């Protein structure tokens, strides 16, 4: 049995982000080009008839909303490229260390790397909140009562998956589980 466990954390490189970045970019380009067509009085998009759109007020409004959408799409594509929120959780019983690594925006704190001694871990805490905005999270709880989140952001995992993952991690680290009744 391996004494090292490494869980990859999916950041912003998920299918839904690719979908929204592409959709917003195409919509923004469409709006921008139709607005620009109304200003230039030429047909920039062959499949859309824009000759009846006046530049003031419709054309300039479409250029504005198209530009905003292009910038939002650019932001989404950059977060995908930089893999914001991605990283890993590494549990190393050989060295007695837990390493949590996350990627952020470029700059001084691009890579956030936190290390804990396994002996400082008190338990694995599971937090389950049902309702309109359900949350199913796994935390490392330290002896000084700090709670370090381990689960990824996004769709909540199934209850059985959370229980299985928390139980597996607690057995690997040799600690108890809190929060599962």
From TrEMBL:
One biological process GO term for this chain? photosynthesis
Concerning Pfam families, the annotation shows:
Ycf4
* Principal cellular location given in the protein's record: membrane
The record's section on InterPro entries has: PSI_Ycf4_assembly
What are the UniProt keywords, alphabetically?
A: Membrane, Photosynthesis, Plastid, Thylakoid, Transmembrane, Transmembrane helix
Q: Does the keyword Transmembrane helix apply?
A: yes
Q: Where in the cell is it found?
A: Cellular thylakoid membrane; Plastid thylakoid membrane
User: GO CC annotation: what is one?
Assistant: plastid thylakoid membrane
Classify the protein's membrane topology as the record does. Multi-pass membrane protein
Q: Which ranges does the record mark as transmembrane?
A: 20-40, 60-82
Q: What does this protein do?
A: Seems to be required for the assembly of the photosystem I complex.
Per the record, the similarity remark reads: Belongs to the Ycf4 family.
Protein name, entry field: Photosystem I assembly protein Ycf4
């Amino acid at each position: 049995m391996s004494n090292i466990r490494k869980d990859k954390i999916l950041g912003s490189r998920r299918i839904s982000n690719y979908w929204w970045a592409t959709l917003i970019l195409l919509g923004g380009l469409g709006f921008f080009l139709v607005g620009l067509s109304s200003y230039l009085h030429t047909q920039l998009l062959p499949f859309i008839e824009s000759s009846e759109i006046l530049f003031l007020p419709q054309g300039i409004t479409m250029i504005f909303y198209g530009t905003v959408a292009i910038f939002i799409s650019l932001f989404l594509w950059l977060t995908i490229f930089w893999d914001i929120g991605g990283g890993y959780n590494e549990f190393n019983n050989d060295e007695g260390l837990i390493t949590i690594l996350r990627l952020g925006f470029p700059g001084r704190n691009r890579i956030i790397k936190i290390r804990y001694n396994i002996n400082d871990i008190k338990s694995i805490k599971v937090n389950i909140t049902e309702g309109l905005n359900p949350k199913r999270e796994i935390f490392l709880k330290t002896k000084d009562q700090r709670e370090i989140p381990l689960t990824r952001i996004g769709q909540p995992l199934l209850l059985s998956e959370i229980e299985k993952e928390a139980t597996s991690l607690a057995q690997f680290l040799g600690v108890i589980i809190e929060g599962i009744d």
